[in-house]
């Protein structure tokens, strides 16, 4: 063990000797006033400030658009587009304080904000829609709904910017920048017209219906139409518009006719117009001009009726079958229509009567109307004077039947020679025309007279006498049943028995039949003998008293 320890000690290396350490030399450097490390935050600050300034410069105002519902609108995702260019984004959607609408807040871009914030701007949500003009908004199936805006083409720099709008639930059919002209049509009712219904000129689609609304008094409908350029130049001041909705059917001397414009007009209605009688010579209609919408082409192309003249009729009989709109005819020509039917009380006669009012159009008389105007030029009301003259010469009103199947009635103005004279007030307003009872009322009176005559007959006595005669006939029938019928039955039985006996006697095997045959043979023989005697007497009459001569032998040859 010791040996191993010694060997291990002897094999260890010797420790190195220490070297002397040099003293460090101190070198003093100059202090720098700026560190390059500060360039990083300075650059970041400048970039951030530039981004903020750029964002502030490019950011427009915030506008608010109200909709009924916020379907498909999401804050931070829904865009505002103008002609498919993004000009803003939805930043928030809130419910209105009255909880009837939703408020959509949109951050506009700086570019274009001046023409978007105008009072005439229109906003709507673009979704897939199926309309009369076709399918629209199919691209939103993948991209999602967005808000579109239609701004007016002219910028009003003097008007203050608007930041609150009411959105449309239905997209407008045309944009404000579309070339064309708007017109207004007045109609008694809307019919089958809808927004987007086509407008035709010579059966070519040149426009469409933009909208409709009731007039201020609620007596008609104001329909807005748009005619595309350059076809709007065909709308003149003399143009006529008429409804071509559905199928038009007519029956006249030429036969049964059916006409329609297009399949779209069958579904959504349509309007057609013409240039009028003057054609291209008529001045062009101005934007916003108002025209009357006629129910059909025949009414539109007819001559103008002019100002109406009101008449009134007092009917003291039943007016069943007379309706508002019934025609007022003068010798078969329609002059006007019934406008109202009311009930009133005649205190003097203590009976009710019907007040029928109607309008006639004197211009439908043609040259007669021109003659009236020329001869009564100094009269304030030439039509009143003319009608008063006709009444004094026998003009009367009468309610007549227009259709026997439906019972419709109309008022006929005509001259009745046997009409009684009545008091007539030519200054009444409206002018009252005397009325005589119609043929149907006269027929009713005749029937009533016949009924009264029948009631005057002694019907009770006649019925009693007829009842007595019927009773006697009944008794006679009973007697015949009780007395004659049994006797007749016995007689029939006896006759049947006699016929049966005769049948037995006349049968082939009966003795009577054999005796009759023998008798007939004997009678035949007797007849033959008599026949020979007659022949003998005819050949030899003298044999009756001489007797029969002997037979002669034949001579030999």
User: Which structural class do the helices and strands define?
Assistant: alpha/beta
Largest sheet: 8 strands, mixed
User: Total strand count, please?
Assistant: 26
| Helix proportion | 25-40%
Can you describe this structure?
30% of the residues lie in helices and 28% in strands. The chain is an alpha/beta fold and 557 residues long. The protein is elongated and about 230 Å long. The mean pLDDT is 79.
In summary, what is this structure?
By secondary structure, the protein is an alpha/beta fold. It has helices spanning 2-11, 39-58, 113-116, 140-143, 263-268, 297-301, 367-375, 382-392, 439-456, 459-505, 511-539, 543-546, and strands at residues 59-67, 79-82, 85-95, 102-109, 122-126, 129-131, 134-136, 146-150, 164-166, 180-187, 198-201, 204-214, 221-228, 240-243, 248-252, 255-259, 271-274, 290-294, 309-315, 327-330, 333-346, 351-360, 395-401, 409-415, 431-432, 435-436. The strands form 5 sheets. It has an 8-stranded mixed sheet, with helices on one face. The chain has a 7-stranded mixed sheet with strand order 5-8-2-3-4-1-9. The protein has a 7-stranded mixed beta barrel with strand order 10-13-12-11-17-14-18.
């Amino acid at each position: 063990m010791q040996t191993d320890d010694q060997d291990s000690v002897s094999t260890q290396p010797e420790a190195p000797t220490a070297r002397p350490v040099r003293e460090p030399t101190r070198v003093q450097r100059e202090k720098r006033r700026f560190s390059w490390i500060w360039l990083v935050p300075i650059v970041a600050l400048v970039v951030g400030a530039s981004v903020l300034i750029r964002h502030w410069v490019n950011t427009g105002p915030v506008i608010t658009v109200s909709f009924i519902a916020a379907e498909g609108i999401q804050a931070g995702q829904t865009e505002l587009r103008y002609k498919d260019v993004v000009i803003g984004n939805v930043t928030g959607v809130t419910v209105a304080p009255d909880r009837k609408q939703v408020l959509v807040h949109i951050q506009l871009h700086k570019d274009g904000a001046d023409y978007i914030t105008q009072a005439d701007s229109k906003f709507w949500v673009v979704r897939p829609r199926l309309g009369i003009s076709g399918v629209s908004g199919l691209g939103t199936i993948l991209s999602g709904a967005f808000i579109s805006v239609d701004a007016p083409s002219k910028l009003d720099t003097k008007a203050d910017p608007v930041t609150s709008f009411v959105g449309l639930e239905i997209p407008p059919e045309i944009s404000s920048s579309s070339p064309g002209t708007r017109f207004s049509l007045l109609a008694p009712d809307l019919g089958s017209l809808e927004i987007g219904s086509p407008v035709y000129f010579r059966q070519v689609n040149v426009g469409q219906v933009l909208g409709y609304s009731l007039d201020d008094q609620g007596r008609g409908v104001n329909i807005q139409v748009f005619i595309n350029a350059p076809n709007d130049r065909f709308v003149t001041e003399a143009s006529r518009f008429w409804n071509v909705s559905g199928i038009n059917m007519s029956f006249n001397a030429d036969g049964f006719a059916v006409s329609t414009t297009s399949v779209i007009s069958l579904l959504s209605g349509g309007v057609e117009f013409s240039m009028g009688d003057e054609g291209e010579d008529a001045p062009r209609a101005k934007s916003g001009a108002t025209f009357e919408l006629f129910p059909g082409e025949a009414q539109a192309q007819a001559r103008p009726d002019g100002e109406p003249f009101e008449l009134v009729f007092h009917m003291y009989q039943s007016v069943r079958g007379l309706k508002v709109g019934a025609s007022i005819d003068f010798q078969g020509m329609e002059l006007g229509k019934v406008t109202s039917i009311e009930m009133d009380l005649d205190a003097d006669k203590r009976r009710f009567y019907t007040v029928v009012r109607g309008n006639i159009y004197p211009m439908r008389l043609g040259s007669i109307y021109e003659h009236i105007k020329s001869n009564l030029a100094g009269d304030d009301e030439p039509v009143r004077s003319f009608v008063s003259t006709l009444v004094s010469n026998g003009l009367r009103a009468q309610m007549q039947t227009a259709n026997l199947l439906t019972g419709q009635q109309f008022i006929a103005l005509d001259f009745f020679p046997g009409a009684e004279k009545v008091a007539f007030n030519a200054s009444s307003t409206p002018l009252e025309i005397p009325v005589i009872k119609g043929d149907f009322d006269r027929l009713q009176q005749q029937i009533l007279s016949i009924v009264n005559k029948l009631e005057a007959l002694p019907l009770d006595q006649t019925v009693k006498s007829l009842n007595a005669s019927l009773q006697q006939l009944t008794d006679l029938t009973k007697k015949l049943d009780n007395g004659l019928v049994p006797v007749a039955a016995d007689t029939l039985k006896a006759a049947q028995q006699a016929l049966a006996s005769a049948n037995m006697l006349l049968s082939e095997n009966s003795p009577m039949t054999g005796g009759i045959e023998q008798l007939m043979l004997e009678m035949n023989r007797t007849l033959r003998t008599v026949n020979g005697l007659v022949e003998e007497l005819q050949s030899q009459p003298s044999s009756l008293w001489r007797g029969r001569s002997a037979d002669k032998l034949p001579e030999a040859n």
